[in-house]
Amino acid sequence: MNTLSVSHLLGIKYLQEEDLHLIFETATHFKEVINRPIKKVPSLRDITIANLFFENSTRTKLSFELAEKRLSADVLNFSANQSSLKKGETLVDTVNNILAMKVDMVVIRHPDPGAAHFLSKRVKSCIINAGDGTHEHPSQALLDAFSLQEKFGDLSGKRIAIVGDILHSRVALSNIYALKMLGAKVKVCAPKSLIPKHIDSLGVEVSSDFKQTLNWCDAVNMLRVQNERMELNYFPSSREYSQSYGLTNELMKELRKEIIILHPGPINRGVEISSEVADSDQAIILDQVENGVAIRMAIIYLLASKLNISIG
Ligand code: CP
Asked: Could you tell me the domains of the chain?
């Protein structure tokens, strides 16, 4: 297969395993390109992409922008808090006005689950979901799985744990879909209050025993506690959370094996992960960020190939 089965990237749920392999193959090529002295290719010089961020972001926003520029696309950046949304304009009107300026593709991050899907049904443009509320963060899951594949090769049968605020995490859901599609065994681990009901229906194991989970896994993806999405107290305090679910050097030393550590960022040092562990050789956190640019170049390139526009 040399084309994606989808015309938008709304979530991993809507992809097939062949799509993931095609994205990884294309990202491997672009990773080689961005490590050359001249990091840019002319492929998308006839394409204009708008990055619409209705929620804060450092990694995803800059990574998409850099990926677009490395592909020679024209780039428009939109920040919700400096826009006419404040004057009452709707999301669909905002996007249709941007598209009237001859924009070909929209990357959107939005606090509402389903925002990217909603938009894809109402505007005539290719939509890429850069994170929609607690729903999905597909480009993050793709870069996480790609980074794991670089370490392990085939992920079939590999044991991957996702630890932390599973309840509020779009990274967790997209990771579960991607890792299961690639044949990995997945376990989620958190205090019971941070585990969604019926998550086992996605074919994952569920645990609240952090040490047992660390002993089980080949790699662990440590998630941040998403205080900005919490209206209630889900655990007594950050200190107590950290004592039960924080990844420390002491815990790592107790393990009788080496495991790979991922984190999507932003890190809360001393809460879900200690500085020593985050900066250790077993942590591939900055490799994930590097791979994010290549993965996003692949996503954009492959989706642009489906538009009726010439690409190099
Ligand atoms: N991983 C991630 O989505 O980080 P940002 O919120 O900084 O984009």
From this structure: 12-137+290-304 (3.40.50.1370), 138-285 (3.40.50.1370)
